[in-house]
Every structure is written in C-alpha cells, then in structure tokens.
C-alpha cells in the first residue's frame, strides 16, 4: 500500500508499507476527527465498527476506548486517543527521519486518578508534532500559526465536544432521532439495536442534562452551540478560507470532525441556520470529499 504526502507538503513521497485499521463508533466525535484527518491526508484505511455493548472487536486492547488506530508494518503498533493518533500520524507524514515506533515514544500514556478516584489515562504532548525546527517552519510558517493550531485543537476537545450530547439529546424527540441514527449506522444486533434505541434514548436524555450541569452550559444548550460556532468562525476570520490558510490545518479538521457527527439531526440544521458557520463547513466538506475521491 502506498501513501503519498498531501498536496500541502508538495512532494509525493511514498512512505508505504503501513496498513491502517481504525476501530471506531461512526457517531463518536473523536473517531470522526480521526476519519476527517485520514481522508484529508488520503491515507487509505480499513474501518472496524465496534459493537458498543460488548466491544469484542477491541478485545485485544487494554485501552478500552475508541478510536484506536492499528498501524501495521510487519508488527502492529497501536495508537490510542484521537489527538495522539492525529499528531503522531502527521509527524510521520512530515518527518523524513523517524519511524512511527520512534514517534510513539514522544506520546507516553500517564495513568492518573481523577477527582472521583477513577483511573484515567492521559497522553502527554498530544497536540504537539515531533518535528525539527526546519520542518516546523516549513509546515507553519510562524510560531503564531503553530500555537493557534494547538489552541483550537484543544478547544475542540475540551469545549466543543461537550456541547454535542446535551444538544443532540436535548428533548425526548431529539434523543430518539439521535439514537435512531446511532443504531442505523452502528454495529448493533437486531434486538440489541431496538433496546438501545429506546432505552439508550431515554438514558441519554437524562445524562445529557447531567452533562449540561457538569460542563456549566446554559439552560438553553443551543445558545452555547451557536456561540461556539460563531467563535470558531471569528477565529478563522474573514481573510482566509480555513484556520490553516488556503488549506485546512489540524484544528480545522478537528472542529469539522466534531461537528459532523450532528449531521442529519435537528441541532445541526439549527446551527447552520442560526450561525455564520455554513460557508466554512461547506468548504471543509468539499475539500475532504475531493481528497477522499482521489485515493
Ligand atoms: N480522549 C479520547 C476520548 C475517547 C472517548 O471517550 N471515546 C468514547 C466514545 S465517544 C469511548 O470509547 N468511551 C468508552 C465506551 O464507549 O465504552 C480521544 O480523544 O480519543
């Protein structure tokens, strides 16, 4: 299998031999971010849709979340956490010297306990690309552009993502519509699916309210979503197509990946109608579709 560097890196250097498999839930925003990244960079990959009840497809892994990316070049390397996957793969595409195995040493997993005493895994350097000075300069042009990308990637993970569940499960009707979609595109057995649709929708309606409190959202959660969309549009500004300039950077891909999971749902249509995000969103869709069609 041959990989080519994206046009933004200008050369077409095959870095072949790496077979990629993405373990995902299609409707998970973290997984959608990784798919947006792989498609934009034209990295061919297999997808394994994980059953969210038993998760037997990821039985091989002690890390129990998705996305997981398996990169196989003789022996498999497991990449966990959407932002680590994206940073490591981007580093791999640009860096001429480092193997993926070496790159992964720069993203160590740290086990910690959260305020409730639960063990959590944190990844160091997850927004950082492991490039030398020259590669960094070539990719970003300026320190500001590099820092800006990090800032908004972090914003997508720490803020934007938390707006999704409270919005798509906002009312019982919306919760049911969301679960209808999740069950249709997800990997559920027939009985499991029916059960998930009604019990899942009811549960998520209430969990959505809890999440709203936990993340200090406004009572009308749509207002936070609209505000986030317009904050993002303002960050991109009037004079560039994407935050990355004429091409999307990793922050564009992250924000797009997160918002995309709401497509087809009422919250998405209302966000499109009530904010200024539509032109940027449409540019992202067509750019990614064009790239994906090329491989
Ligand atoms: N920080 C992780 C978060 C991943 C995450 O929370 N994934 C959810 C799905 S959206 C998950 O797998 N949760 C465990 C489960 O469903 O059992 C990332 O960026 O990849």
What distinguishing features does this structure have?
disordered N terminus, 295 residues, alpha+beta, four-stranded mixed sheet, Glutathione S-transferase Yfyf (Class Pi), Chain A, domain 2, binds glutathione, globular, single chain
Bound molecules: glutathione
* Number of DSSP-assigned strands: 6
Roughly what is the average pLDDT, rounded to an integer?
93
Residue share in helix:
40-55%
Q: Helical segment tally? A: 12
- CATH architecture classification: Up-down Bundle
Give a description of the structure.
With 295 residues, the chain is an alpha+beta fold. 51% of the residues lie in helices and 11% in strands. The chain has a four-stranded mixed sheet with strand order 2-1-3-4. Strands 5-6 form a two-stranded antiparallel ribbon. It is globular, with a radius of gyration of 19 Å. The N and C termini lie close together (11 Å). The model is unreliable at 1-14 (pLDDT under 50). It binds glutathione. Glutathione binds next to helix 2.
Structure summarized in a few sentences:
The chain has 295 residues and is an alpha+beta fold.
List the helices and strands and how they pair.
Elements: E1 19-24, H1 29-40, E2 46-49, E3 68-73, E4 75-80, H2 82-94, H3 100-104, E5 109-113, E6 119-123, H4 133-140, H5 143-158, H6 164-168, H7 172-185, H8 190-214, H9 221-236, H10 250-260, H11 266-274, H12 278-293
Parallel strand pairs: 1-2
Antiparallel strand pairs: 1-3, 3-4, 5-6
